């Protein structure tokens, strides 16, 4: 027996060496459907690496990464948590545990924005679930490892889940290890006890009484597992050989055509090559709760997922030369002293205040240095830098290329939002002047897109004296979670908070009342409706004696896109698919800029006023405007001695509001969120469910498919179904449940587009129609105009 665990290091060990080696850094995320075991797997990773002295338990509410009171009481992950640990005294793993619930999809989106690789956790009983498909698509282009968890549960199916992986997620797979079962002496049932390591040709059997102990044995020719291992190794090499010619050459020249003679290091090198190119996904299995299979999973993270040197580069607004140095990482514009980082998350710490999570893509961020926010044009000094271990902070002097850390300080909270790009100079505390004004200071990483909110709830203070506390609390919520939106209905005076789902708003309410101590009343959760324009406004112009001049109109997005030209700058207004278009001025150019305020400050001011003005301008139901463009004509002017954008803010907001006020009611239309719905039902229930969808729920049914036929039978589905049939897999008694080609009974999938308003409380209706056997998944599709016969019922609800 070997003990596969290092001594606990505690939360104060940052790294194992004073010399920073970027090649051994792994920035990974854990993604999966809810309840697949993400947090449990994370806890076991921390334990076996020696990061913690005990294993946290989701059911007992004592996990490291789920530290919020709501997370521990509900047993779910609500916000992503970052933690760093070492593995094998060589690798540094920066891990982000993400939520699995669809309402918190923005947490997954912003985590994936800064990660280099992913571990996808699957439930061996449930297989590939709806949210698994969603997060897999969100992680497109990011190398992935798959871990089939809960192999110790009744009904677990390793081979069935692998087949579903191939057909539903459309990926080629290589089996790194497969499950080993033993017969229980008392019950005679098969018990999961370990894995067959295909690459290293060994068996790993965990001690059921002490999960830290594992028995490792070679599989020799003639042993009872050799034939199975040979078939698995053959399948592994054959799959890799389709993508790696070097492995084929080694197989023929050095291994004499014997699969078993290819050493592990050659196989691992080939797997890594194919994973980084996105051609295969390694598959491992285990039971995290019992601590089985976690160590091989960590080895796979180290061996197969990319370092920051190999990871995909971020997308910038401008084309700049990027080279990669083994010592310094990414070097942008041939400037080793140029630092670029992106803010991807904001939290409020009770002691440190506002904390901004950042990923450094080039250079180094140094504590106490001046930095520049190229997204807003603000220059400020950062305070102390820290590395987070869930909710425990460790101070560091610098964050180097490839690292994930946190900015602190009052100036940081005032000047940085989620998605902003931070620019700095490596060596000088105030070295921004030495950076190239256009290529470096003007560089931005493309922002993090926030999905539109689809539910709203009215929030009111219990007394007028509580109003300020309520506003401050809501501001704190939105600063941390930009997928929450707030607007004031000026006609009723109500504050409306909008979010991704009912649970999302329920959590927000809980935080307002219990964490932020806001004495408020929260109303009924309702669907968020919008309005849009069917015609453009008249051009409004203002010119002041002091020299300010603005000409603005508002138009439908479709009209603006049809006439888009190179003579205009487009800026997304953060929500509701609205944009600001600034026509380029013939007077003010990058080579001729006499103004004291920057172009970024000028644009930011008009963006702010546009967001406010469009939020309250709907005529029919006073809903926010959606899919509109605020256009600033190119004859704008700002006095050269102006040092503030306050006048620009005031003038632009007034112009936008005035130009919308003059429109007739017929120029507006109500929009409602439409959901892409997939309902899985038995054949005998399909009639009742279809009738309910098309009748009461106004659904537009697109297709009815067998459960394992995806995308309506496209060629790629046929290809991957054939590959799944040809893939060698171990014996699995549940495999027939995924094999639709042999006449097994399968569910039908009804796919359609349904108004979100009609899907509220659909769970109860579906249960009654299918005796509890039906399931459904829905995702946001887009906004569509409401038909005239439904407008009155919608307005009555508000």
UniProtKB/TrEMBL annotation:
<dbReference type="GO" id="GO:0032790">
    <property type="term" value="P:ribosome disassembly"/>
</dbReference>
<dbReference type="InterPro" id="IPR009000">
    <property type="entry name" value="Transl_B-barrel_sf"/>
</dbReference>
<dbReference type="GO" id="GO:0032543">
    <property type="term" value="P:mitochondrial translation"/>
</dbReference>
<dbReference type="InterPro" id="IPR000795">
    <property type="entry name" value="T_Tr_GTP-bd_dom"/>
</dbReference>
<protein>
    <recommendedName>
        <fullName>Ribosome-releasing factor 2, mitochondrial</fullName>
    </recommendedName>
</protein>
<dbReference type="GO" id="GO:0005739">
    <property type="term" value="C:mitochondrion"/>
</dbReference>
<dbReference type="InterPro" id="IPR041095">
    <property type="entry name" value="EFG_II"/>
</dbReference>
<comment type="function">
    <text>Mitochondrial GTPase that mediates the disassembly of ribosomes from messenger RNA at the termination of mitochondrial protein biosynthesis. Not involved in the GTP-dependent ribosomal translocation step during translation elongation.</text>
</comment>
<dbReference type="InterPro" id="IPR027417">
    <property type="entry name" value="P-loop_NTPase"/>
</dbReference>
<comment type="similarity">
    <text>Belongs to the TRAFAC class translation factor GTPase superfamily. Classic translation factor GTPase family. EF-G/EF-2 subfamily.</text>
</comment>
<keyword id="KW-0342">GTP-binding</keyword>
<keyword id="KW-0547">Nucleotide-binding</keyword>
<dbReference type="GO" id="GO:0003924">
    <property type="term" value="F:GTPase activity"/>
</dbReference>
<keyword id="KW-0496">Mitochondrion</keyword>
<dbReference type="InterPro" id="IPR030851">
    <property type="entry name" value="EFG2"/>
</dbReference>
<dbReference type="InterPro" id="IPR005225">
    <property type="entry name" value="Small_GTP-bd"/>
</dbReference>
<dbReference type="Pfam" id="PF00009">
    <property type="entry name" value="GTP_EFTU"/>
</dbReference>
<dbReference type="GO" id="GO:0051881">
    <property type="term" value="P:regulation of mitochondrial membrane potential"/>
</dbReference>
<feature type="binding site">
    <location>
        <begin position="97"/>
        <end position="101"/>
    </location>
    <ligand>
        <name>GTP</name>
    </ligand>
</feature>
<dbReference type="Pfam" id="PF14492">
    <property type="entry name" value="EFG_III"/>
</dbReference>
<dbReference type="InterPro" id="IPR035649">
    <property type="entry name" value="EFG_V"/>
</dbReference>
<dbReference type="Pfam" id="PF00679">
    <property type="entry name" value="EFG_C"/>
</dbReference>
<dbReference type="InterPro" id="IPR009022">
    <property type="entry name" value="EFG_III"/>
</dbReference>
<dbReference type="InterPro" id="IPR004161">
    <property type="entry name" value="EFTu-like_2"/>
</dbReference>
<feature type="binding site">
    <location>
        <begin position="32"/>
        <end position="39"/>
    </location>
    <ligand>
        <name>GTP</name>
    </ligand>
</feature>
<dbReference type="InterPro" id="IPR031157">
    <property type="entry name" value="G_TR_CS"/>
</dbReference>
<dbReference type="GO" id="GO:0005525">
    <property type="term" value="F:GTP binding"/>
</dbReference>
<dbReference type="InterPro" id="IPR035647">
    <property type="entry name" value="EFG_III/V"/>
</dbReference>
<dbReference type="InterPro" id="IPR000640">
    <property type="entry name" value="EFG_V-like"/>
</dbReference>
<keyword id="KW-0648">Protein biosynthesis</keyword>
<feature type="domain" description="Tr-type G">
    <location>
        <begin position="23"/>
        <end position="309"/>
    </location>
</feature>
<feature type="binding site">
    <location>
        <begin position="149"/>
        <end position="152"/>
    </location>
    <ligand>
        <name>GTP</name>
    </ligand>
</feature>
<dbReference type="Pfam" id="PF03144">
    <property type="entry name" value="GTP_EFTU_D2"/>
</dbReference>
